[in-house]
Gamma carbonic anhydrase family protein (Iodidimonas gelatinilytica), 188 residues
Amino acid sequence: MQMTNHGGGTVLPFRGISPQLADDVYVAPGARIIGDVEIGAGSSIWFNCVLRGDVNSIRVGQGSNIQDGTVVHVSRKTHPTHIGNDVLIGHMAMIHGCSLQDRSFVGLSSIVMDGCVIEEDGMLAAGSLLSPGKCIGAKELWMGRPARRVRVLEDAEIAAYRQGVLGYAELAQVYLSEAQQRDGKDDQ
């Protein structure tokens, strides 16, 4: 992975550790990525997000999108943050010292706290709070403050969320291409 134009966001080292982003990662203007952060191919970090890997690490897989205004942080020495592949995180979420497995979904304005896990295809509904150490099982829907299991998601619902991930991946590449054209660095 090398540092290229990612769309206009700020990518900063901390204590000598620089974020590592795949070439096609989109980082929107106003977003900040700091320190021990790795982001995989095709992922997108949208306007005014903060990913702060200062006292532990943040890992984001391939094809994931972290939407506008979301904060991703860690706990000192105890809880890094791991975001898998094809994860969808809605606007204004707080992701802190947790693990979001492949294809998990975090709704708008939700909070995921230290030690939590959202398993594959699991969903935390909009506005919910997943308190420390809780685990949303595969294909489960949880909601509320504090969040509780509501039901198992239907296959059609999961398919719709996966389409949302693909839509964001396509949109991110359009934004990235336009940013590179503006800067005269279009490699295509």
